[in-house]
Design goal:
Residues 30-241 form the Nucleoside phosphorylase domain. Belongs to the PNP/UDP phosphorylase family. One of its GO terms (biological process) is nucleoside catabolic process. There is one protein chain. By secondary structure, this protein is of the alpha/beta class. The protein has one domain (29-231, 238-260): Nucleoside phosphorylase domain (Rossmann fold, 3-Layer(aba) Sandwich), CATH 3.40.50. The protein contains 6 helices and 11 strands. Strands 5-9-8-6-10 form a 5-stranded mixed β-barrel, surrounded by 4 helices. The model has no long low-confidence stretch (mean pLDDT 94).
């Protein structure tokens, strides 16, 4: 484990300022849940693990899943703190990020407990605006999407793929009333407009993670369990373990994809290369 005693704000330092990890602490692929408590639930599925850092909302553990190296770092709520995690983890060698979280579904036929695999995201958060112009797309990496779909299929879990919206506000920014019934301008039309555009779900981090990863030439994706369906009004905290298991298996499949690419001399994995 990296010595944390020399931590500073210098991005070139061995130990990163917020996440408090160095190159020897994390695998190439990292899962990114929001809640630090989810780290225990995720690592319980692995072959073994060690907690390597816990500073503020950033809790990191590293281990293996089906013999593939894997790490997890919690990011807290929202895109600003998620962006810090991606920035600092990238600086110590991480090249693959998978957002693992919960969401609200906004289309009919999406049940509580189902999984949603993001193919792209509406950038309704402000963090990614600090990196790129507003018409820059937040696209998930094709290999990560393929690995998540393959993992969900192998595990037999119900899932949906499509576009996610990432918001900065849990209440007004997602069309919910605020304190004493406050409604932001346009909030009463927000969900209906997203439904008409075939957006599948709403959460708070994916678009920033995808955008920043694309800017830096890294792989990123997102998978969330449906806690609420805004169409039916149903709400249950269900599917968390399925999301964690699917994302963990996806990391193993990505490792196999990388091996197949090396053997084939290919730059990208595609359907013509078997796993």
């Amino acid at each position: 484990m990296t010595d944390k005693s020399d931590r500073s704000e210098d991005p070139n330092d061995e130990v990163q300022y917020h996440v408090e990890v160095g190159e020897d602490d994390v695998a190439d692929a990292v899962l990114l849940p929001g809640n630090p408590e989810r780290v225990d639930k995720i690592t319980a599925l692995w072959d073994g693990h060690e907690e390597v850092a816990h500073h503020r909302e950033y809790r990191t553990a590293t281990g293996t899943y089906e013999d593939a190296p894997i790490s997890v770092t919690s990011t807290g709520i929202g895109s600003p703190s998620a962006a810090i995690a991606v920035e600092e983890l990238a600086r110590v060698g991480v090249d693959t990020f998978i957002r693992v979280g919960s969401c609200g579904a906004i289309q009919p036929g999406m049940d509580v407990g189902d999984l949603v695999i993001t193919t792209g995201a509406v950038r309704q958060e402000g963090t990614s605006d600090e990196y790129v112009r507003e018409d820059y797309p937040a696209a998930a990496d094709g290999e990560v999407v393929s690995a998540l779909v393959a993992a969900a299929e192998r595990l037999g879990y119900d899932y949906h793929t499509g576009v996610t919206m990432s918001a900065d506000s849990f209440y007004a920014g997602q069309g919910r009333p605020g304190f004493e019934g406050f409604e932001a301008a346009g909030s009463d039309e927000l969900v209906a407009e997203l439904q008409d555009a075939n957006v599948k779900n709403i959460e708070m981090e994916a678009s920033a993670i995808l955008t920043i990863a694309n800017v830096y030439g890294l792989r990123a994706g997102a998978i969330c369990s449906v806690y609420a369906n805004r169409v039916t009004g149903e709400f249950r905290t269900e599917g968390e373990s399925r999301t964690a298991e699917t994302a963990s298996l996806a990391v193993t499949l990505l490792a196999r994809m990388d091996e197949v690419k090396r053997e084939a001399g290919a730059d990208r994995w595609h359907a013509g290369l078997s796993l």
